[in-house]
Amino acid sequence: MLKGLPLLLGLAAAARSPSPSGAPSPIDYEKEIADIVACAGSKVLPAQVTLLPSDSDEGITVSRSVACFMRLVQSVAEEDDSDNEDDEQQEKLEIPLAKVDAESLALIVEFAEKKLAAAGPELDGLKFSEVPRPLSGPLSETESISEEDATFMDEIANDLDKLFRLTNAVNFVDCPPLLELCTARIAQMLIGKTPKEIREIFPEVFKKEAEAAEE
Q1: Cα 76 to the chain's mean position, in Å?
Q2: Which of 39, 188, 197, 202 could form a disulfide with 193 if both were Cys (CB 3.0 to 4.6 A apart)?
Q3: What would the pLDDT profile of 121-150 be if each residue is shown by its tens digit?
Q4: Residues 6 or more apart from 97 whose CB is under 8 A from it?
Q5: 57 sits in which H/E element
Q6: Phi, psi of 2 (to 5 degrees)
Q7: Regarding beta strands 60-63 and 94-96, do their DSSP bridges make them parallel or antiparallel, or are they unpaired?
């Protein structure tokens, strides 16, 4: 069930507002790339990491490079590394993700794997779409957003429940470049709309929120 819709809508609206400094985005994309590359080349994480979603007993095993897209995973690994010096233990790492469902986790992994495939083996070609602020139109018509990323988000947005669950999940694992795309895709549906029109766009979503509040 969807949770925190008002928070997500507020996040999307706030995230798409221009910053006082006039900067296009508060995210330092160069730093995000540098951190991922550094993480992928380090031994803080084992070669493979198993991520455990909240709604399934089956984890998803990913490469170190994919895991490095999630700052939460990086921080958990760093804590585990400082507390555990057993080499055999370090070769196996399972991380439970309490607020991430299996479908959303699979989408996060897909996003990371596509970026890595395009980056090349040394990751020297790693790059992210930069979301402008404010967003003035569809992602597909925004020059700084790749066609692949726009299509990826548009396909997810066909199912609002999936889009909101993914946004919650991405926020939890802390993957800023993907969170920017998620909030931008939500914002795309809000551009120029009144509160009444927004409720008409998301009728089932608001209904679920109201039902949850009454429980």
Answers
A1: 17
A2: 197
A3: 999 999 999 998 888 889 999 999 999 999
A4: 51, 52, 53, 54, 72, 105, 169, 172, 173
A5: none
A6: -65, 140
A7: unpaired
Task: Return d(Cα 112, Cα 124) in angstroms, integer.
Answer: 15
In b/e form, how buried is each residue of 13-33, taking b as 16+ CB within 10 angstroms? bebbeeeeeeeebebebeebb
**pLDDT tens digits for 31-43?**
999 999 999 998 8
pTM of the predicted model as reported, rounded to 2 decimal places: 0.84
Q: Which of 193, 141, 177, 166 is nearest to 27 (CA)?
A: 177
Peptide bond into 134 cis (omega under 30): yes
Give CA separation, 194 vs 173, 187, 210, 214, in Å: 32, 13, 19, 25
Of 133, 127, 185, 115, the residue nearest 22 (C-alpha): 133
Dihedral sign for Cα 206, 72, 34, 89, please: negative
Count the neighbouring beta carbons within 10 Å of the beta carbon of residue 189.
17
Structural Rg of the chain based on CA atoms = 18
CA separation for the pair 215, 212 (Å, rounded):
5
180 close to 29: Cβ distance less than 8 angstroms: no
Cα distance between residue 14 and residue 41, in whole Å: 35
Question: 62 CB contacts (<8 Å, ≥6 apart)?
Answer: 48, 49, 50, 51, 109, 112
Sign of CA dihedral 204, 209, 210, 214: positive
